[in-house]
Amino acid sequence: MKKKRHEAIINLIEQNCLSTQTDLLNKLQELGFETTQATISRDIKDLRLVKKVDELGRSRYTVDSGDSGELIGKYRSIFSHSVINADYAGNTLVIKCYTGMAQAACAALDSMHWEGLVGTLAGDDTIFALCRTPEDADRMKSAIEEITE
Q1: Residue 87 above 80 pLDDT?
Q2: CATH entry 3.30.1360.40 includes domain 78-147
C-alpha cells in the first residue's frame, strides 16, 4: 500500500501545484487513499520532497533534485524486487534476498539514508544491517515489509 501511495504522491505533485500537506492529503483521499497527516509527513520525508518556487512564483512540493527523483525511484524498485523478507534480533536486521541480488539491494538500501541505520554488509542473498537500537531495527523491518508488499 505504501508503494502505491508513494507513486500516487509523485504523480500528484507532478500534475498539481500542491503546497501544503493538507492539499496533498485531500488529493490522496480523492484517489481513495485512507491516510493521515502524520503518514503524509513521513511520506514527504521518505520521498525527499521539498518545497520550491515554480516559474509562476508559487510554492509547491517537488522531488529534491539533489538525489534525482528518478534515481530514488530506481533504488526503491531494485530494493522492492530483490528482497524476500526481513527479520531482526536485537539491533541487527537480516534481509533475505533472491540469489545474487543482495549486493544491489544493499546499495539501494544505503542510498535511502535510513534514520537509525549504522551500516550494512551484503553477501550473495543476505544483507546484515546494523541499527542503533532494537526499536530502529523494528521500524526498519516494518518499513521494508511495506516497501516489498
Answers
A1: yes
A2: yes
